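Deliverable D4.2, example record:
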Amino acid sequence: MTTPTPPSGTTAPRPAGPRGLFRSRDPLRRYREIHGRRARIRWWHRLRAIVVLAALVALLGVLLAGLVGVLFFVMTFILEAVS
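Output generated by the structure prediction step:
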């Protein structure tokens, strides 16, 4: 008969005696999904996402403005050369 596994996020007490010394812990417990009350986005994850999104939007805006500026600059030379 096997012992039931505890819910995710909790640890079962180790059995006393020699059996507890040789019982291994779950090496992948850090990477398992979290259920229940702990399953939420932390505030620093939200803050990091907002900062990265703002930086990405700013960078793309600067690149687009630079591209339009270069295109305008090149088109003025082309128009002067044609006329």
